[in-house]
TrEMBL record:
Ranges of residues in domain OmpR/PhoB-type: 131-229
UniProt domain Response regulatory: residue ranges: 6-119
Protein's UniProt name: Response regulator transcription factor
Alphabetical list of Gene3D superfamilies matching this protein: 3.40.50.2300, 6.10.250.690, Winged helix-like DNA-binding domain superfamily/Winged helix DNA-binding domain
Source organism of the structure: Amycolatopsis tucumanensis
Keywords tagged on the record: DNA-binding, Phosphoprotein, Transcription, Transcription regulation
Classification via CDD domains: REC_OmpR, trans_reg_C
Length: 232
């Protein structure tokens, strides 16, 4: 495993910081460390990293608040470290725009692979599929501009939400499993499939008249999800 890039590792546990640093450096990365949220933001402002590994549960400023503040400035990739079973933290982090998460206790090798996977996706050249504009009823996506509107109103979508919605619109009426969506939309060969569930839920909140009774993004029981176009 080899990689390149500058990684900021933020965790209040010195042992965790040291283990992650040694493993990432062995993989070819340069690593900067921070022990709390304030220090992380200072180092972030001094030199923007290529990716941030960020612990959620820290004394003082939480990792979620650090993520929120970073997202106000840039779209730098973020991999969260969360406690096993803390689903709400993972969901909150994804809503803030985090790119992935690893649950503690974790394998340093798995974390390094996640870092490489997220960086690889972030560095892919932007593709402009044809056609550039996808529409369904009042829903309109302009891919090259990364803009989405519903009935003329701008939709605030994260990068992941936009990519998932564009994929659905480009292939209406086809059912995809969560595993297929992880791989086809985001290029993940591994990962927690609940990530897909969270993003589908968020999309429904933004494009469905009644998210509890979705008509566009349908659940296909035993399979996954299917996008049903609005009927005339």
């Amino acid at each position: 495993m080899t990689g390149t890039g500058h990684i900021l590792v933020v965790d209040d546990d010195e042992t965790v910081r040291d283990v992650v640093r040694r493993y990432l450096e062995a993989g070819g990365f340069t690593v900067e460390l921070a022990g709390n949220g304030d220090e992380a933001l200072r180092r972030f402002a001094g030199r923007e990293p290529d990716l941030v590994v960020l612990d959620v549960m820290m004394p003082g400023m939480s990792g979620l608040e650090v993520c929120r503040r970073m997202r106000e400035r840039t779209a730098v990739p973020v991999v969260l470290l969360t406690a096993l079973g803390e689903e709400e933290d993972r969901i909150a982090g994804l809503r803030l725009g985090a790119d992935d998460y690893v649950t503690k206790p974790f394998s340093p090798r798995e974390l390094a692979l996640r870092v490489m996977s997220v960086l690889r996706r972030a560095r892919l050249p932007a593709r402009e599929p044809a056609p550039d504009v996808l529409t369904d009823g009042g829903l309109r996506l302009r891919l090259s501009a990364h803009q989405a509107t519903l009935d003329g109103r701008p939709l605030s979508l994260t990068t992941r939400e936009f990519d998932l919605l564009a994929f659905f619109l480009a292939q209406p009426g086809t059912a995809f499993s969560r595993e297929e969506l992880l791989e086809k939309v985001w290029g993940w060969n591994f990962g927690d499939q609940s990530t897909v569930t969270v993003h589908v839920r968020r999309l429904r909140e933004k494009i469905e008249d009644d998210p509890a009774k979705p008509t566009r993004i349908a659940t296909v029981w035993g399979v996954g999800y299917r996008y049903d176009p609005v009927r005339p």
